[in-house]
C-alpha cells in the first residue's frame, strides 16, 4: 500500500459516491479567484499516513446525509488507481476506523514492527484474560493466553510471512478464542533415550509428527502432550511439526539432544505452601538458600518471598518422597550442614511478645529426621561464617571479626552446647560468606568476601578456591566460577550447585554452548593441579537452569535447579561422584582449644541500616549453590533482618 494515493469521497442523497475538494487551490482565474482545487486525499508512504489535505471544502456539509441513516454521513477512501495492493498479497483491504472533524487531523498512521505489534498483542491478551484461565494459577493462566495468541494465527492472508516466524502468519484475535481454529503450539521437548515428549496446547485429534522432515512414530497423544519415537539419525536443532487430523499444523524448533546425560531424573518437590491473593504457592516459589544431606535424607531451605516465610523440604532417599519439615515457632534458618544422621542449622529465634520491643536469640539447632525432633542451644557464631561437617566435626569456617573484616579462623563447634571447643588450621586468607563443602579428607572453600558488610571500593568478592587435605591449606588461583570466565556463555545467570569430592569438587550450572551437542554444564575441579574442566560425559539439563542447589550423599550428588518453564519449573537429578560422607554425627567430644578464641563479630540483634539488600549465590553445607558469596550473603541478611524484627525481600514473579 506504500506510495499510493487515496481519494476521500462522500455518499450523496442518491446513494452515489462523490469526490469533493480540499481547500488547496490548483488554478485561479485572472481576478485571482480559485477555479480548481486539489481533491481531498491521503497518501501513504514509508509506513506512515502523510496528511495531504489541510481542510476539506464542503459547504453545507449537513445536506450530504445518507437517507438510510439520518444522523450519519457516509465517507470512504478509495485508491486513486482503483486497486490497492499491499505486503500481504496482490490485493489488500483497507478499513477506516474513525474520522475526526475539525481543522487539525488526528495523529493517525500506519505502522508495523514491534512498536505496533506490542499494543495489538497486549490488547488481545487483555481480551483473552476476560474469558480464559480465571480459575487457574497465574502462571498457568498466562501460559494459556500466550498459547492462544500464538495458536490463533491467520496464514491465509499472510502470503509472504511463511518462515518469517514459527506461526507462519499474523495474529488473529477471533481465532484465538476458538480452540478449533487454534493451531498446535509447541512449548517444550524433553528426550529420554529414543523417546521424545512434546508439551504444548491445541494438539487436537491424533495426526502426524515430523522431526527434521522425517515422520516420527507416535506413542501417545492428547490435547497437551505427545510422546513419540525419534527418527534414526536426527540430531542438532531441528524443526518439529505437529499436524493434527482435524486442523492445520503447528511447528517450532528444538535441539534434538538428550535432556540429560549420566544423571538420574528424580521427582522434583511440589509441596503446597498455601496461596497469596488467589495465587497458589508451591515449591517452585521458594528462593533456595541452603542444602545438606545425611546418609538417608536431603533437606533444603528456601524463602517464600511473597510471605517472608522460611520453609524446609526433605527428600527421603529410600521412599523417593518429598515432605515438609515444620520449623520450631518463630525460628529462621540460614546456614545448614549435615552429619551421618542429623542436620545442624544456624538459626535466629524471634521473641515477638512485645511488638514494640522485638528481640532475637541466635541458636544452633539440631534436627533428627528419623525422630522428627528438634533441639536448640544458644550460640554466638561470626556473621558470615559457613557451617560444614568435616571429619565428623562441625566447623564454622571464616566469618567477620569485630571490625567487620573476614577472618581466617576455622572453629570446631559442639552442637550440644553451641560453644567453640577447638580450632582447625587457619585459612590462608580471610573469607566471609564462602561456599564450604567437605568429602573425606578434602575440605573446599570457594569464593567469599572480605567482609559481609563491606561495600563499594572496600568490598572484595573472591572467585578462587582454597582446599585443605587434612594437613595443609592450598590457595588456588583458578578464578573460574565467575561471569567473566570466557569459557561460559555470555550474559547468563551464574548460579551453581557445588560439592566437594575426594581430591576436588564438582559444580553444576554454568553453561557453555547452550543448546548445542557440545553443551557443558557440569565442571570438575582437581585440587592437585588447581584447574577446572568441563565434563563432556555428563549433562545436567539441556535447558539452562538457575538457582541451582545441591548436596552429596553416598556416591551421588543431588542437584535441584529451576528451568523457568511453566510445564516443568524444577528438575531434580543425581549423578555419581567420588564422595565420602561423615562416618558419625558431630559430638561434644572435641579437643580443648589451645587458647582464647579470636575476636568475632556475632550476628547482631539489630539490623543495619542497609540490611534490605540481598544477593544471589550460595550457602554452606555438603553441597550448595549460587555465586561464590551471594546466597551465603542472603542467608546472613536473613539473620540480620530477622534479628531486627523485619524481613523484606523482592523478586520478579515467575510466569
UniProtKB/TrEMBL annotation:
Q: Where is the IPT/TIG domain?
A: 193-246
Composition bias type Pro residues, residue spans: 591-601
A Pfam family cross-referenced in the UniProt record is Kelch_1
| Keywords for the protein's UniProt record, in alphabetical order | Hydrolase, Kelch repeat, Membrane, Protease, Repeat, Serine protease, Transmembrane, Transmembrane helix
Ranges for region Disordered: 576-620
What GO molecular-function term can you cite, just one?
Answer: serine-type endopeptidase activity
A single GO BP term for this record reads: proteolysis
Superkingdom of the organism of origin: Bacteria
Q: Where are the transmembrane segments?
A: 624-650
Protein name according to UniProt: IPT/TIG domain-containing protein
Q: Which organism is it from?
A: Eubacterium callanderi
Amino acid at each position: 500500500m506504500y506510495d499510493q494515493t487515496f481519494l476521500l469521497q462522500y455518499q450523496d442523497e442518491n446513494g452515489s459516491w462523490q469526490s469533493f475538494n480540499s481547500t488547496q487551490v490548483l488554478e485561479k482565474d485572472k481576478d485571482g479567484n480559485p477555479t480548481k482545487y486539489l481533491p481531498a486525499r491521503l497518501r501513504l508512504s514509508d509506513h506512515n499516513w502523510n496528511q495531504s489535505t489541510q481542510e476539506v471544502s464542503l459547504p453545507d456539509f449537513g445536506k450530504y446525509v445518507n437517507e438510510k441513516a439520518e444522523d450519519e454521513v457516509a465517507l470512504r477512501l478509495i485508491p486513486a488507481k482503483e486497486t490497492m495492493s499491499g505486503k500481504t498479497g496482490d490485493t489488500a483491504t483497507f478499513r477506516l476506523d474513525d474520522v475526526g472533524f475539525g481543522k487539525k487531523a488526528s495523529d493517525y498512521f500506519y505502522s508495523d514492527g514491534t512498536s505496533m505489534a506490542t499494543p495489538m498483542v497486549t490488547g488481545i491478551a487483555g481480551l483473552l484474560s476476560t474469558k480464559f484461565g480465571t480459575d487457574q494459577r497465574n502462571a498457568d493462566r498466562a501460559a494459556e493466553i500466550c498459547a492462544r495468541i500464538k495458536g490463533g494465527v491467520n496464514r491465509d492472508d499472510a502470503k509472504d510471512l511463511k518462515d518469517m516466524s514459527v506461526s507462519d502468519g499474523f495474529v488473529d484475535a477471533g481465532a484465538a478464542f476458538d480452540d478449533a481454529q487454534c493451531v498446535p503450539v509447541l512449548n517444550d521437548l524433553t528426550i529420554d533415550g529414543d523417546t521424545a515428549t512434546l508439551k504444548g496446547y491445541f494438539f487436537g485429534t491424533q495426526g502426524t509428527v515430523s522431526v527434521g522432515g522425517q515422520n516420527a512414530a507416535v506413542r501417545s497423544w492428547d490435547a497437551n502432550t505427545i510422546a513419540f519415537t525419534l527418527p534414526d539419525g536426527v540430531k542438532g536443532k531441528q524443526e518439529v511439526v505437529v499436524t493434527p487430523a482435524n486442523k492445520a499444523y503447528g511447528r517450532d524448533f528444538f535441539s534434538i539432544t538428550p535432556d540429560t546425560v549420566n544423571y538420574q531424573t528424580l521427582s522434583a518437590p511440589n509441596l503446597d505452601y498455601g496461596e497469596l491473593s488467589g495465587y497458589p504457592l508451591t515449591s517452585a516459589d521458594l528462593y533456595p538458600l541452603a542444602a545438606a544431606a545425611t546418609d538417608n535424607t536431603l533437606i533444603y531451605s528456601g524463602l517464600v518471598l511473597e510471605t517472608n516465610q522460611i520453609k524446609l523440604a526433605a527428600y527421603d532417599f529410600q521412599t523417593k518422597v518429598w515432605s515438609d519439615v515444620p520449623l520450631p515457632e518463630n525460628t529462621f534458618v540460614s546456614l545448614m550442614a549435615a552429619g551421618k544422621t542429623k542436620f545442624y542449622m544456624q538459626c535466629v529465634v524471634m521473641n515477638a511478645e512485645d511488638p514494640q520491643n522485638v528481640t532475637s536469640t541466635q541458636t544452633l539447632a539440631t534436627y533428627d529426621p528419623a525422630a522428627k525432633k528438634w533441639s536448640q542451644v544458644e550460640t554466638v557464631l561470626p556473621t558470615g561464617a559457613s557451617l560444614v561437617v568435616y571429619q565428623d566435626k562441625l566447623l564454622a569456617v571464616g566469618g567477620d571479626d569485630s571490625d567487620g573484616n573476614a577472618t581466617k579462623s576455622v572453629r570446631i563447634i559442639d552442637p550440644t552446647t553451641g560453644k567453640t571447643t577447638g580450632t582447625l588450621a587457619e585459612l590462608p586468607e580471610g573469607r566471609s560468606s564462602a561456599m564450604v563443602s567437605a568429602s573425606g579428607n578434602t575440605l573446599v572453600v570457594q569464593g567469599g568476601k572480605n567482609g559481609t558488610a563491606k561495600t563499594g571500593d572496600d568490598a572484595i568478592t573472591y572467585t578462587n578456591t582454597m582446599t585443605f587435605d587434612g594437613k595443609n591449606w592450598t590457595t588456588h588461583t583458578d578464578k573460574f566460577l565467575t561471569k567473566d570466565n570466557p569459557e561460559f556463555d555470555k550474559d547468563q545467570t551464574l548460579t551453581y550447585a557445588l560439592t566437594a569430592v575426594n581430591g576436588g569438587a564438582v559444580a553444576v550450572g554454568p553453561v557453555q554452548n547452550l543448546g548445542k551437542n557440545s553443551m557443558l554444564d557440569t565442571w570438575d575441579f582437581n585440587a592437585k593441579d588447581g584447574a577446572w574442566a568441563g565434563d563432556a560425559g555428563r549433562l545436567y539439563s539441556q535447558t539452562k537452569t538457575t538457582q541451582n542447589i545441591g548436596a552429596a550423599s553416598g556416591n551421588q550428588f543431588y542437584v535441584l535447579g529451576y528451568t523457568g518453564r511453566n510445564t516443568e519449573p524444577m528438575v531434580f537429578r543425581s549423578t555419581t561422584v567420588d564422595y565420602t560422607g561423615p562416618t558419625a554425627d558431630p559430638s561434644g567430644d572435641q579437643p580443648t582449644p589451645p587458647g582464647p578464641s579470636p575476636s568475632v563479630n556475632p550476628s547482631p540483634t539489630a539490623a543495619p541500616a542497609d540490611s534490605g539488600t540481598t544477593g544471589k549465590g550460595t550457602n554452606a553445607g555438603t553441597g550448595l549453590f549460587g555465586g561464590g558469596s551471594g546466597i551465603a550473603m542472603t542467608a546472613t541478611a536473613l539473620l540480620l533482618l530477622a534479628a531486627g524484627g523485619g524481613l523484606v525481600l523482592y523478586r520478579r514473579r515467575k510466569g
